[in-house]
Amino acid sequence: MSNILSLRYSARTIGYGAVGVLALTYIGLIAVVMSYAALTVEFTQSVRNDEAAVARLESQYLNTVSQISNTDYASVGYTKPLSKTFVTTKSATALR
Amino acid sequence: MRAQFRSRIRLVLLGIVVVALLIIVRLYFVQIINGADYSEKADRQFASGGSGLFDRGSIYFTRKDGTLISAATLVSGFLVAINPQTIRNPDDAYRAIARVASSSLSYDSFMAATKKTSRVYVEVAHHLSNEQGRALAAENIPGIQVLKERWRYYPGGTLASQTIGIVSYGSGDDLSGRTGLEKTYDNVLSRSGDLLYKNFFAQLFSNIGDLLVNSRDAREGDIITTIEPEVQTRLADDIAKVNKDYSSKESGGIIMDPSTGEIIAIAGYPTYDANNLQSVDPVVLSNPLVERVHEFGSIAKPLTMAAGLDAGVITPETTYKDTGCITVNKATICNWDLKARGVIPMKQVIIQSLNVGASWIATQLGQDRFRTYFMKLLGDKTGVDLPSEGRSLMSNLTKPQQVGYDTASFGQGIAVTPMQMLRAEGALANGGTMVVPHLVRAIRLNTGIERPLDWSTAVPVYSAAAARNTAAMMTEMVDTKLAGGKAKIPSMSVAAKTGTAQLTDGHGGYYKDRFFHSFVGFFPSYAPRFIILLYTNGPRGVEYASETLDSTFLDLVHFLIDYYAVPPDRGPSTEASGVTTQNP
Question: Could you say which of A13, A58, A88 has the minimum Cβ distance to residue B574?
């Protein structure tokens, strides 16, 4: 049996085969890395686009806060109270 | 036959080995020698060839519920570049660009760019939206390139812009933080590139140490500030209103948590829109609240009072004879109304803001003790995390003339930054201990880990009793004097002090009709959650700070009570009806 093996697969042949397999494996790994890189770039770009969209929403939020803060309440129909009433505040736990 | 077959097999194997070797060599060059270039190309297929896409960490505001809101972030879009050598019809090209980006390109500047025929790449428009960029790219105009770009964007525009800072080119080609937090935390916010994708195998061959433990990951990140955006908006609006109402030279304000030093809002006016720097006066880029010094006037009196109480030279019950004016080293020091009060207790020095009384306390303290207290309070930089912090001017306290100490006791003759004054007054609100005012509470690293910053350094100045007794006097001032007594909030104790200082004329004297108004206050008086410092420089048509800053301070107090639902610390007894009505 061992004779047959040694006849069919000499050490040199096995060596060549191993080099071929390693080369193919390496090429496969490169393909994986390249795919990984492409996906990473794509996802990162997607995240950044989303971040930019969020930034614009945040800008709208801050503008709205500023508009509310700057609103002249008299101009929208509110008047100053005739008197202010201070009442004892109940604790937050009592309200639950 | 067999030998022939073997030789063929060997030939084929040799071919495979040679091809494999060629591939390995080629991959070595692709991944290791030129890996960075290819990753760059992959990252930005649309990007210009001159430099990589700009990358930088974000700066966040923190809402009261912990939500993070961007104060500075990145947005991406497109730029338009032309090749003057290949552009065929400049007028058509301009019309095409103007159709999608009318506001970002003038006809004259575009035509000037097309005449630079010695060049092959001239950028003519920036900051186009994704839709605009794609629309222009779809037209395929010869000589026009539409390229991806990313830029710094400040969602708040003017909001805290002097504190957040700006990013710009310095002497080199790198965009980096130039002012504000952008500068202080530049090493955290700046990015060294290659973050988009890391080639594991290339790193395995070339730099395994960097792959396992990346020093950048321990340094680079986003910064999370203590600024609350809604409080910041309110303060900024109020400060702008004061400045406009009184045509002041400048105004500013800070709101801080006196127990931790967290700055909740900080605003100066005039300010600028960080997204539009083209027509900004460079002077307003600096932060006046940490860089400029002023004589603050009578808000220094509580510091003098607490020093006297802490040293034991006075008690709250101590009396002195107020003569209205005194002469010290041939200089005359008078009360604001020139009137004498006779024999009165210490609290009246705060309630009526008496210069003669503050001078009397300074005299009781003696020069050495007075200097020790004031140098501890105001002599050092605060350590706030903003660049270019100013130094106080305290030289009057190094001279033997008593008049320098007397004037310093009511805030004249010494000049400090608003941040220094806030930190010192914070000692009265924090049991006699000063904290480090700061704007950034944590750094969120790229790994996702949030690393809190340590701001726990505290400087004890007064005893808790001295601080509390002084706070009581300031509270009585609010309850009885401020806005004629109408400012009193029955359910909340508020401690405050106004300050009106004459402005220096630049020739060793003071203007008679130009003033610096300041206001400091904190609440609840005996367990404060907020301390507020306001100032306005050179208001027109008014003399006293009580006229300019009272309503601003009270507006902020009421806003903060409502917004944070600060529970009452005094007020209507539960035994009675629990209701107090007050006419506004």
Answer: A88
